[in-house]
Amino acid sequence: MTTTPAAEPVATESADADSLGTGALPSSMDKSRTALVRRARTINKVLAQTYPDAECELDFTNPLELLVATILSAQSTDKRVNAVTPVLFARYPNAAAYAGADRAELEALITPTGFFRAKSDTLLKLGAALIERFDGEVPAKLEDLVTLPGVGRKTANVVLGNAFGIPGITVDTHFGRLARRFGWTTSTDPVKVEPEVAALFPRRDWTQMSQNLIWHGRRRCHARNPACGACPVARWCPSFGEGETNPVKAEKLVREPRG
C-alpha cells in the first residue's frame, strides 16, 4: 500500500520533441509545462491504481437523487446524507414532490445533515424551478444546472460526471487542497482551480481524476498531518514532508473517511 510503481516514468526537462509530438524542441517554459503535465498524469494513474473503487460516495439512482444528495452534503458528510436519503427519496420521488413538500416534514427528514432550514428552502425552490423551466427533469448542461437554486459549479459537475457521464471536475475542499499540494495550482479560488487543473488532463479523465483526489484526501492526504510516509504518490509530490514521513507512524494516520 505504501510503495509506488517504479516503472512509471517521471517527466524531466530532457523530454525530446518526438515524445512531445510537437515536431520541434520546446522552450524551457514548454519543457517545464510538459514536466508538470506528465507528473500530474502519473500521480492520477497511481491514485487510480491505489483506489480502484473510487467513485462518488453519495447513494443515488438517478440525476435528481444525486442533485438533492449533493445539496444536502454541504457542511455535512456523505455518511450522514446517505443515512437520510432512503426515506427522503421514497417520500419525494420527483421534482413535483419537492415543490409541493410540507416544509416542516421536509426539515424533519433532513435535520441530521445540518442547516436543515436553509436546505429545505433550497429543495422547495429547486423542485419548483425544475417544474417551471425544465419539465421536472434535471438538465444535463452545466449552463442550465448552475441556474438552479443551490447549484454551483461543484454541484453541477458532480451531477454531470456521475449521473450523466459528462466529464467534469469537482473542486471540493479535498480536491483543492491536493491540487495545491501537488503543485497543479496555487489558487484557493475553486473557479480558478478548475480550469488550471483541467488543462493538465484529457477531458475524458476529469470525473475519475476528481474522485481519485477526493478519495486520497479523505484517506491519506488530510488537511492536518497528512500521512506522507504512507502515500503512494510521495515520490512525485512537491509537498512531501508536510506530514508524518515515518512509514509506521504514517500508516496509523490512514483512515476510512467519516463520509
From TrEMBL:
Residue ranges of every copy of the HhH-GPD domain listed in the record: 72-219
SUPFAM superfamilies: DNA-glycosylase (SSF48150)
Region annotated Disordered, chain positions: 1-28
EC number, as in UniProt: 4.2.99.18
Feature: compositional bias, Low complexity: 1-14
Catalytic activity, reaction form: 2'-deoxyribonucleotide-(2'-deoxyribose 5'-phosphate)-2'-deoxyribonucleotide-DNA = a 3'-end 2'-deoxyribonucleotide-(2,3-dehydro-2,3-deoxyribose 5'-phosphate)-DNA + a 5'-end 5'-phospho-2'-deoxyribonucleoside-DNA + H(+)
Cofactor: [4Fe-4S] cluster
NCBIfam families named in the record: nth
UniProt name for this protein: Endonuclease III
Lineage, top ranks: Bacteria, Bacillati, Actinomycetota, Actinomycetes, Propionibacteriales
